[in-house]
Amino acid sequence: LAKTTQPISMDSYEGQEVNITCSHNNIATNDYITWYQQFPSQGPRFIIQGYKTKVTNEVASLFIPADRKSSTLSLPRVSLSDTAVYYCLVAPVETDKLIFGTGTRLQVFP
Amino acid sequence: DTAVSQTPKYLVTQMGNDKSIKCEQNLGHDTMYWYKQDSKKFLKIMFSYNNKELIINETVPNRFSPKSPDKAHLNLHINSLELGDSAVYFCASSQIGLAGGSTDTQYFGPGTRLTVL
Q1: Residue A32 pairs with which residues in a beta bridge?
Q2: What is the nearest CA distance from A50 to chain B, expressed in angstroms?
Q3: Pick among A27, A45, A96, A100 to test the B interface (most B CBs inside 10 A)
Q4: Which domain holds residue A42?
Q5: For residue A97, what is the domain's CATH number?
Q6: On chain A, which terminus has fewer CB atoms closer than 10 Å, C or N?
Q7: Does position B50 have pLDDT exceeding 70, yes or no?
Q8: Are β-strands A61-64 and A70-75 bridged in parallel, bridged antiparallel, or unpaired?
């Protein structure tokens, strides 16, 4: 399974756009990129998933360059409630075995 | 209305005891999972069941025994508890599991914090 690398932590202020980049240099052709969010004392929650180019939903956008060796989760206009750990996962479509890395701890300040 | 629920939320027990954690999902999903999140916040998969059949069994001590009475329930029984078992245990479910692979969203429960004294 592809290994992912993302910053351990990031700080932001309310109203700012936050971009969290994940590196996955050995991503395979059949791998999908998925981001989960985990609030303190809660289970992870699915945010967004993509294979290539750009995906957008009501919560976030996911940008994936053509070589797919990295991906960027973009959170527009964050609020205090976006303070959480964000996990980037890369897994082949053939498996439902999710491998969570260390994640990025995002702290949003007022 | 809780999609994936776990009981109890907190569990404090002595070493050597046997305990169970229950999980139920009302999403009609076919696959359920157990994950362990340790004190360093690493989240690791332990087991998965699809329609009551064991699919994933990671390197977990055989003191841990999952039981799925029906596809809506996946309970985790732990024998002879050890200090190192202290962690938060999360149950999750997905609609079709392996057939959907990594594109099948997993829905997590609120977690059970187990403390072994």
Answers
A1: A91
A2: 9
A3: A96
A4: 9-109
A5: 2.60.40.10
A6: C
A7: yes
A8: antiparallel
What would the CATH number be for the domain defined by B4-116? 2.60.40.10
Cα A6 vs. chain centroid, distance in angstroms?
Answer: 9
Pick the range with the lowest mean pLDDT from A7-16, A65-74, B16-25, B44-53: B44-53
Residues 70-89 of A with CB under 8 A from B: 85, 87, 89
A20 touches chain B (CB under 8 A): no
Domain ranges of chain B: 4-116
Number of structural domains chain A divides into:
1
d(Cα B50, Cα A75) in Å, to the nearest integer?
Answer: 34
The 8 Å CB, 24+ separation contacts for A56-63 are A60/A35, A62/A33, A62/A35
pLDDT digits (tens, 9 = 90+) for B53-107: 888 888 889 999 999 999 999 999 999 999 999 999 999 999 877 777 777 899 9
Please give the structure tokens belonging to residue A60.
Answer: 């976030």
Q: How far does B114 lie from chain A, in Å, by closest CA?
A: 13
Nearest by CB to B48, which of A41, A49, A96? A96
3-state secondary structure B50-69: ECCEEEEECCCCCCEEEEEE
pLDDT in tens, A8-41: 999 999 999 999 999 999 999 989 999 999 999 8
